[in-house]
Amino acid sequence: MFGDPHITTLDGANYTFNGLGDFLLVRTRDRNSSFLLQGRTAQTGSAQATNFIAFAAEYNSSSLDPITVQWLLEPSDTIHVRLNNQTVTFETNRDGAKGQEMFNTSGVVMTRNGSVVSANFDGAVTISVIALSNILHASCSLPEEYQNRTEGLMGFWNGNPDDDFRMPNGSTLPPGSSEEVLFHYGMTWEINGTSLFGKRDDNLPSNFTPVFFSQLSGNKSLNENLTSTCNGDKHCLYDALATGNKSLGLDTGMLFRTYQQMNTTLNQYPPSIEGPDVMEAYVGQVKVVNYTSSTKDVTFTLRNNCTDFKLFGKNPWLGL
């Protein structure tokens, strides 16, 4: 989800949706947990287009208290992060990449690196949000247990992009539907009640309709200088034409490539680790447990000055 919202579903279908309001992006559950992701949009300046200004996620499981995280856009491409309605204070991660900060509590690990803030819920769901050009952009990774169980703007996740545009009433739009039809589809996922963000402070127009790419591309009077550097990238073209801002269009094109890289990273995070879930140890006895990972560049570390555990070997063993 990036730019003047260009959305890639969980199955890889791409579309543009410039709805104005609070929207359901993903809702899913399995036997042990549930996950909810919502997004809030605002009008992009005076343009007939919108962009995300906030995301909120809620994770519930049988073994954890409910966890709610909010990413809120602030000036200068800053993200204000809240956990269960409390501001998150990040600390320098000495074991991580240069400049990376971390917040770790029961059920959620968050990292911040510049204008990118990621949250991993219970080692299962990862949401990564970046602020650029005064817009929030996000990427989402879900575990396989949620397949065939999702609904919202990110589609019905079953490996088939042709049935992603499923509405709350169960009906599905066919592939190749027009921008106008997809806009009305997206509006069916607007949240009419109370969202995870609470009540909006701004008054939204009740009949906002965005400008569509077909209208923009057919207007020959538009300055070609806006699109000359887009190299045919439709995301760049739309954002530059809709806003009259060539830089925003270029940022969108760059973000699309970044988004693809983020998805590659998210598919590897958290890494695959093999080893026992529970360690049984007895006072006065040494217990050796072997943990391994086939994921590239995985590092095992001990935190909080732990003296009862020691790491051994090139592929470290955790000894107690």
List the helices and strands and how they pair.
Layout: E1 6-8, E2 14-16, E3 22-29, E4 33-43, E5 50-61, E6 64-74, E7 78-83, E8 86-87, E9 91-92, E10 100-105, E11 108-113, E12 116-121, E13 125-132, E14 135-141, H1 179-187, H2 213-217, H3 234-243, H4 246-266, E15 288-290, E16 310-312, E17 317-319
Antiparallel strand pairs: 1-2, 3-4, 4-5, 5-6, 6-7, 7-8, 9-10, 10-11, 11-12, 12-13, 13-14, 15-17, 16-17
Q: Sketch the topology as an H/E string, one letter per element.
A: EEEEEEEEEEEEEEHHHHEEE
Total strand count, please? 17
Relative strand content: 25-35%
Rg computed from alpha carbons, rounded to a whole number of angstroms: 22 Å
CATH superfamily of the largest domain: Mog1/PsbP, alpha/beta/alpha sandwich
Main beta-sheet strand count, sense and barrel state: 6 strands, antiparallel
Outline the low-pLDDT stretches. Answer: 316-320
Query: Quaternary status of these chains?
Result: single chain
Q: Tell me the domain tally.
A: 2
> What is the first-to-last residue Cα distance?
45 Å
Strand order of the largest sheet: 3-4-5-6-7-8
The CATH first-level class of the largest domain comes to Alpha Beta
Query: The CATH topology of the largest domain, please?
Result: Protein Transport Mog1p, Chain A
Give the second-level CATH assignment, the architecture of the largest domain.
Answer: 3-Layer(aba) Sandwich
Query: Portion of residues in helices?
Result: 10-25%
Shape: globular
Keywords: Disulfide bond, Membrane, Transmembrane, Transmembrane helix
Protein name: Mucin-4-like
InterPro entries: C8-3_MUC4 (IPR056619), Epithelial_Barrier/Signaling (IPR051495), VWF_type-D (IPR001846)
Subcellular location: Membrane
